[in-house]
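Our working data are protein records whose layout never changes between entries. Getting from the letters to the tokens is the skill we practise here. To make this concrete, we reproduce a full record directly below:
***
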Amino acid sequence: MSLPERITDFGWFGAGWAVFKGGTTDPDFYPPLDDSDAQREWLAGFGAAWVECPDNEAIESILNGDGMGGESVEKALVRVLESRDDLLRALWALGLGKIARVTH
């Protein structure tokens, strides 16, 4: 698995985290379409950031509701990858559709 020079310090996991948190469009922060290991690592970082940084609706739901509110990880991924359909399809093929439906 090769890494672009810009992300060697934090790897694909960190790149996925950064994309969720910062929404960067820098192509170096997105895994290659032909590297499923990089995609899995990137997706793990994206998911970890989603768990660690719930949106306001999710926080409200956690504190005062059933904990099921807020943006799902799937919706977050679709939102962030709206201009990267090929990558979204590749991640979906890895089993993204099997992610647990519990939001936060």
Notes: The helical segments are 11-22, 36-52, 56-64, 73-80, 85-93. The chain has five helices and no strands. Residues 36-52 form the longest helix (17 residues). Confidence is low (pLDDT under 50) at residues 99-104.
